[in-house]
Structure formats: C-alpha cells, structure tokens
Amino acid sequence: MNFLKNAIEIKDELIQIRRDFHMHPELDFDLERTLCKVKEFLDKEGIEYVQTSKSGICATIKGNGNKTIGIRADMDALPMEEKRQCEYASKIKGKMHACGHDVHTTILLGAAKVLNSIRNELNGNVKLIFEPAEETTGGAPYMIQEGILENPNVDAIIGLHVEPNIEVGKIGIKRDVVNAASNPFNIKIIGRGGHGAYPHSTVDPVVISANIITAIQNIVSREIPPTDPAVITIGSIHGGTAQNIIPDYVEISGIIRTMTSEHREYVKKRLVEVVEGITNSMRGKCEINIQESYPCLYNDDNIVDILEDSAQEIIDKKNIIVLKKPTMGVESFAYFSMKRPSVFYYLGTKNEAKDTSYPLHNNLFDVDEDCIPVGVAIHCKTVVNFLNKV
C-alpha cells in the first residue's frame, strides 16, 4: 500500500484540522474543545476510544492478531502570545501552539483514518494515545497508571516531534538516549538576619548561597565524566529587602538535567550533600526539595530499525538524518519509553521560503504543512511493518 499517496489524498482535510487546533489552543489538562474535536473525528471513523487521565484519550483499532503497537501524540499548547500574522493564528489571548502539538495530534488523526480503513488487513491492533499536559507535568504517567498499556498489552510505541532545524521531507533519528531526565529543585538557606554594618552578629544566607551556587557546579565539572552530558542550572535567587539589611533567608531554584539513570541519582545525592555541608559549615540551616520530573527518553534499537526501514520506503534513505547527540530538553514520551520498547523521531518542518525556521517555543513558530502527510505515512508504514514482523 502506498501510504504517502493515501496521506496526500487527505492532506487538505488534515490541514483544516490542524489549523482549527492552532486557532484554539488549550493548556495543560484543560483541553475541553480539543477533546471534543478528537472525539468527533474518532466517532466519524468508527474508532472506539476511552477518555483517561481527565483529558487524555486512548483509542483502539482492532485488527487480526495479538500484537499491539501504540502511537502517541501530545495535545496541549503553551502560555504564549502568538505574534505571527496568518489566517489561522491563535484566537485565544495568551495561548499558542508554539511547540507543534497541534501538528502531532493532526498526524495521529490522519494515521488513525488510514489505518482504520485497512483494519481487516492488520496483523494486530493499534492504540492511538492522545496525551494531555506534556508541557507541564506530563499526562503520560497518569495514563500509564490507568492502564492504557494493557488490554490489549502494548508491545511497542512510536512517537514524533516536529523539528524546525530539519528540512521538510526529512526526519531525524537518534539511537539509545534521546532526551535528558530533569529534576527541578528548590533550596531555602536559613541564616540569622541583621544590620549590614555588623555582619559578625548575623549568619549571612546570601554569602552561604553564593558559596553553594559556585560549589554545585563542581559536581558536573569534576564528578561526572566529561564525555557524559549533565547540567545544573540555577534559574532564580531571591532574598533580602534592602542594601543594608542581611536577610533571614535566601531561596534558590534550579533544575538538574542528566542523560543516564545512574547520573541522575548521583547528582541528586551530591546536590544534597554539598548544600548541607556548606550550610552547616557556615552556621546556617537549609531546606532542600528535589522534584521527580521526566525520566530519560531511550530509543530501542529494534524499534528504531523498523521505523528506519519503514521511513526509507516513504522518503528514501538520503532523507533520514542520523542524529549523533541527544538533547538536554525533556519529553514526556520518556515515560512510555521506560515501560515499552519505543522509538521517538523528529519530523522536519523547515522551509525558508515559507518562513518556518523559527525555533520551538518562539511566538513566531509555524510549520510547513507538507510535513503532515509525511508523518502520517511513516507512522502507518511503521505500524504495518511492526505488526507483520515475526
């Protein structure tokens, strides 16, 4: 079956769907209108679904066989003001699809339509996973907890993300680790405030904080192998009210990014040890809160092989870019990759002539919509090849 031809035949329909999503962005788990549109499409195609995790959807195309593959798309937008002038610009003030989730959802709907039309020829089942809140806490762990990977059991999952650094008509694939894990943290350094002219009578939390901020960078530069990426970023520091007043406390917040589970646990442990050690040695006290956020995203070699072979049939080998380095960004698809063999790839959307080279999370971001049938076709071909693989 020529899946690219099938996808091009419904391209106009899919572009209208994408533009409708783009004009009406919604955030986090508050996706009422988006959910309605997805449900309307699935109802029209006769595809069964359940609503899960407040505003997620898991639909199932039942074929012939026990194998099951999932395809995931995220649906939420960002709290940004769109500045691009076009007929389908966001109509909702302060909200914008600046990360391409409108495209992801549209591609999954397109794949659903094509695959459902040949469901009697499928050697297994397809689960269509529409995830909320990717830009915040991630809907994936809630969906997994509610059992969307069971009944029938999902054997593998595929997903994609639009990429404005890759030319439209091309894709990028990275083996092994693809995205970093993240751990946001908050630190409160508690001292004893007083007059700036008499620092000896105080315990200065500002000075303690300065020592901590410098020292924790040594965790990355001197305790993590230089060949392995890791980052500790301090994003905010708050303390004090006036130039001549030493405050009682200082609050620090930041984020840890690591590329392996081992380094993730090590950096968290060392952050606590360093902060406590410096604070205690300088007569202060501390409160440390390290949050568990997205894990590392790993691509499974076997599923990568299937997707790469499938993509070659759609766009030719020369249009497949082998990515050498992972990204320090995070992606909630990682939760799925920790549970099932997965592949996550990047779909090119760059076209200088159409002015679609702005980066993700930019208020002028847009895509070349010619990417939509490419994504649909690669999804479909990968599904069929996976289900047919002995």
UniProtKB/TrEMBL annotation:
Going by the entry's taxonomy, the superkingdom of the source organism is recorded as Bacteria
Indicate the segments forming the Peptidase M20 dimerisation domain, all copies.
185-276
| Species this chain originates from | Clostridium aestuarii
Record's CDD domains?
M20_Acy1
Recorded protein name is: M20 family metallopeptidase
Q: Which SUPFAM superfamilies match?
A: Bacterial exopeptidase dimerisation domain, Zn-dependent exopeptidases
NCBIfam families the record matches: amidohydrolases
Q: Which residues cross the membrane?
A: none
